[in-house]
Structure formats: C-alpha cells, structure tokens
Amino acid sequence: MNNAHLFIASLRTAGWLLWCDIRLFMKDWHNNLLDSIFWPLVLILANGYILPAMGMQADYGAFITISMLIIMASFTAWFAANVFVADFESTRSIGYELTLPLPYWMIFIKIALQFAFKAAIFNLITLVIGKVILMDAFSFAHFNGLKFALIYLVSCFFFGTFALWAACLAGNVKRFMRLEQRIAGPLFFICGYSFPWKTLHAISPVAGKLMLITPWIYAYEGVRAAIFEQTESLNY
Amino acid sequence: MNVLIRVDNITKLYGEHKALAGISLDLYQGEIITLLGVNGAGKTTLSSIIASLYPPTSGDILYLGKSIYKDLITFRKNLGFCPQKPNFADGLTVKEHLIFAGRYFLIDNDILIPRVDELINRFGLNAFADKSPAVLSGGYKQRLLIARSLIHKPSLIILDEPTVGLDPHIRRQLWDIIKQLKYDGVTILLTTHYIDEAEVLSDRVCVLDKGNIKLIDTPASLMTSFNKVNLEDVLLQLMSEGTDETNIRVSAHKFE
Questions:
Q1: Side by side, which strands form the sheet with B79-82?
Q2: pTM score, two decimals?
Q3: Distance from CA of B74 to the nearest CA of A (A)
Q4: How wide is the angle at C-alpha A158 spanned by C-alphas A154 and A163, nearest 5°?
Q5: Cα B178 to Cα A35, A61, B25, B102, B120, distances in angstroms
Q6: Which residue, B9, B83, B115, B123, could crosslink B143 as a Cys pair with Cβ 3.0–4.6 Å?
Q7: What angle do CA A34, A39, A40 make, to 5 degrees?
Q8: Is the ipTM value over 0.90, yes or no?
Q9: What is the pLDDT of residue B256?
Q10: Which residue blocks in chain A are alpha helix, DSSP H?
Q11: Interchain contact, A99 vs B92, CB within 8 Å
C-alpha cells in the first residue's frame, strides 16, 4: 500500500474509534442531558431574576445564558479530560488505541474531537433553558445560525484540544485538578463570562488588550454576536 | 527460523532513571519468548516499546528487517497487544468489543462476523457474548483481551503478565490457550512474574535486571548449564550473582 492508501486507512480507523466513543456517549444520553441542565437552570434563574432585582441590567439573564453555554462546554471538555487522566492512572484504555494501525498524532486528534463532541452536543440545551426561563427577555430576533454554528463548533474543538493538552501536561489527576483550580477555572470565568469585553476595555484599555490574547473571549463574544446584536460584542 | 523482530540497542530514560540500558534481542517467528525479572527490571517498558506504545530514547525496533518507526501502521496491523490490566470500554458487550476491534482493522463484515463468532467459541465466551465485560471473572477478562488482540490474525502477540492474580486452574487454562496460539504459528512475547509459567511455556527466556539483559536461553539449557532442576533455582542463583555487566550471559542458543 502506498502512503495515501495508508493515510486513508488510518483515517477510517480513527473514524471507527470516534464512532465507538460517540455511540457510548449517546447510549447514556439521558444522564448526559441531565448533567447539562442543572447548572444553567439555577444560574440563569439567579442572574435573570434575582440580580436585576438588586440593580443589575434587566437583560443580564440573557447575557449569562450565553456565558453558561460556553462555560458548560468548556467544563464538559475539561471533565472528559479528567476521565482521560484518571484512566491513564488506572486501566490505560488509551494503551489499546495506541497499538492500533494509525499514527500517534491521529489518536490525539480523535480524542480532542471526542471531547469537543461531548462539549458541543448536550450543552445546546442551555439555549432552550434560557428561552424557557427568560421568555421574551431572551430573544433570537438577531440569531445568525451559520455564524453561531461556526463559532460554537470551533470553540468546542478548541476546548477539547485545550483540555487534552492540559491533561497531557498534568499527567495525573492531582496535578490536573490543581491546574483547574489555579489556572483553567479562573481563565474560563474571567475571559468574558460575567462581563462583556467592551466594559472591560472601557474601564482599562490595557486589560482589554491583554484579554484579547486569551481564546475564550472570542468564544463568548463570538456566540453573543451570533445570537444578539453584533454592536455589543467584538467584531465577528 | 527467521527473525521477526530485532530489538536493536534500545535505551529508555525516564529523567535520570535508565529503565532500559541498551537492550538487543531477536524474536524468532513462531516462538514463545518470555521476559522475566523482578519489579522494575524493565519487562513492561521493553514490551511496551516493542508494542509501539511509546518510542525508545535511542535504538530501533526492526520488523522483518525494517524499522517499525518508518512504517508503524504496517507493523501495527501485524501486532496484537494484551496489556497488564483489562482496558475495556464501558457500555460495550463482549461481542461488540470484538466487532469494534475488527472495525479498527477495517475487516469486512463478511469476514468479521464469522471471525468474531469463531473467537467467541474458541475462548469459551458464548455465555457472555451479550454481556458487559464488567461481569466477567479475571480469567474470562484475559480471554477476551487475547481474543480481541487476535481479531486481525496478527503475527506477533505481546502478553503483558496475562495470568497475574488469577487462580491456578485459570492460569492453566490460559497456558493452554497460549500454547495453542504458538501451534497456530503466532510469535508470542510474554512477560511474567511466574517462573513456572515461563518454564512451561517458553521456547526461550530472557532475564532482565535493572534494564539490562542478564541472560537469554532455553529453559532446558539454563537448567543444564546451571546444574539445577528448575528455572526458579537458576534465577535465584543468577540474582545472587549481582548485576554488573560482566555477569551478563547472553547465550548463543538460537531458537530451533
């Protein structure tokens, strides 16, 4: 077989591996769906009704709905990576995949895609929860499906890749948890979860510019631009 | 016998620690070669490198004269690997594990389905075909691991401590399975702590100590040359001789 045939054969093997992962994930769909519901539910309720009663803007619930979508995707990928690290310390099921007929790098791309899929699929329920809880306060009038699909899928692939990279860097559960508590968790929240980039930039242009280094800000702002009006978000 | 695998001066460093210190070894087609040694001797590191789980720090592995790192995919198509711990996916049945294993090697359905049925029969897994591997006993989990690694009819199978922690009668059953694999022409690299297992199964044993090969020979030749009645006594004497490189005895005995 020549190189092109070997490459295509490897891609097919990677495809089967990914299909097996997706099948297993979907088999437990009800639990995975439930996992995606409770955090958005309580936080959209609190931010949509309680914080405005304390003086926050009335549309803050809608703002947080998008934040929840992104942060839930981030954390879903992160938790999938946590399982990966725990497996590395116990049964090492990756050991089987690493002896299959495909190159090392392709296995890691497959794992990143697997994390991205897990991050993307059930967390979309956040938008439904937002609409049900906030009703007219969460409008899809400016929704751009193509823009949304593009930024959401790219963001989820980034979350999957980042989580895998962090998992490989940490190497064990203890270090991975520390990485979450000290770096990843704060990054997920500070980079656009609770305030828009424009507000930060207005307060401190230097902090605003620095924020542009982090990829998360583009996920938050991009999804907001695709669902709400572009004028309030970074240009997308 | 032809050389199937040539391990050429392999070293493996973990930071400052030298897990393998320049190992060279030939695996002949159709033989059972056993890696023996105490914990930390380098057995799992060496078998994992041969299984291409990770690369060595230096040196090369040749499959039929060609570096596996130049054509990893072809090598892996001829490799079956059974890790020390069962690593099955939660949510797949025994049969689905075998079917997916076949899919990963791109085996066509008309060949794969009979092959899966054949392996399920051969390894006595019929009663568990539609059950999760989680319900299997240790011995049956090992059977499934071996069956999974054989789905694509590999020429080399690596068994990393396949009988560890199993009851004696289950170990004997697995020995029969391993002997049958050899009878089928599969080359087997076995790592084990059990010296009786090595004595019964091996065509040759390779004793590792602190990342070096201390000795390679047939069990019978070892017992004769050390004037001992069993392999355990041979190893005890070997271990008492120290580990400096002047003690290394690599026999010229080739597997016939």
A1: B79-82, B156-160, B187-192, B32-36, B204-209, B212-217, B249-250
A2: 0.86
A3: 7
A4: 150
A5: 45, 64, 21, 21, 16
A6: B123
A7: 95
A8: no
A9: 45
A10: 3-27, 29-35, 38-45, 51-53, 60-89, 94-97, 104-121, 125-134, 145-170, 173-179, 185-190, 197-203, 205-211, 216-227
A11: no
DSSP 8-state secondary structure symbol assigned to residue A182? I
Instruction: Please state the domain extents for chain A.
Output: 3-232
The secondary structure of residue B33, as a DSSP letter, is E
- Distance between CA A188 and CA B256 in Å, rounded? 63
Chain B residue with Cα closest to A91: B87
Q: Give me the tens of pLDDT residue by residue for chain A, a chain 236 residues long.
A: 678 888 999 999 999 999 999 999 999 899 999 999 999 999 999 999 999 999 888 889 999 999 999 999 999 999 999 988 988 777 677 888 889 999 989 999 999 999 999 999 999 999 999 999 999 999 888 899 999 999 999 999 999 999 999 999 998 999 999 999 999 899 888 888 999 999 999 999 999 999 999 999 999 999 999 998 777 777 77
Encoding tokens for residue A131?
Answer: 């609409």
Q: Helix A60-89 crosses helix A104-121 at what angle (to 10 degrees)?
A: 140
Interchain CB distance below 8 Å, B100 and A16: yes
Nearest C-alpha in A relative to B84:
A91
Which residue among B54, B74, B104 places its CB closest to the CB of A17?
Answer: B104
Q: What value does the mean pLDDT of chain B take?
A: 88
Q: Closest approach of chain A CAs to the CA of B45, in angstroms? A: 13
Give residue B251's pLDDT. Answer: 47
Residue B69 with chain A: CB contacts under 8 Å: none
State the virtual CA torsion across B83, B89, B94, B98 in degrees, nearest 10: -70
Closest CB to A101 among B48, B51, B76: B76
Nearest chain A alpha carbon to B52: A99
| Residue B117 burial class via C-beta count within 10 angstroms: exposed 0-12, middle 13-18, buried 19 and up | middle
Closest CA to B43 of B176, B135, B159: B159
Tokens 């044993």 sit on residue: B205
Distance from CA of A21 to the nearest CA of B (A): 9
Residue of B nearest to A21 (CA): B89
Residues of A in contact with B106 (CB under 8 A): 9, 12-13
CA distance to partner chain A, nearest, from residue B103 (Å): 7
